Amino acid sequence: MKNINRILMRIHLFVGIGAFFGGVFGMTSPSGAAFGMPASKYLIGSPFKDFFVPSLFLFVIIGIGNIVGFLFHLRKIKYDNLLSMGLGLILCMWIVIQCIILSNINPLHVIFFVIGAIQILLPISKNRKTKDA
């Protein structure tokens, strides 16, 4: 059970820090030119004119959310597993929506979808081990 907690904490930190800085980068360059993805090309047909709103979501919900998830596990706060599962679900949904909007799937999408699935499944495994003991 301690190993599962450590794995979840590392996942939360990895996803949280990456999303935090990715969100900041996207909000400071909403046109996408700074990272070689011009919004005028990649966001055609999407509800967004630039990357600011998606980057804000990435920063607040996925970035700060996963850092909070890390802190919940670190301090063993009651709803740590529920928060991990919710954040994993949000990450999976985020990736699916991103692939639909961009009309593209790349290896990073697959990797982060799997990470989100792990965030959902590890707390379930942890709860089963607790009940079996």
UniProtKB/TrEMBL annotation:
Top-level taxon in the UniProt lineage: Bacteria
Keywords: Membrane, Transmembrane, Transmembrane helix
Transmembrane segments: 52-74, 81-103, 109-125
Protein's name in the database: Uncharacterized protein
Originating species: Alkalibaculum bacchi
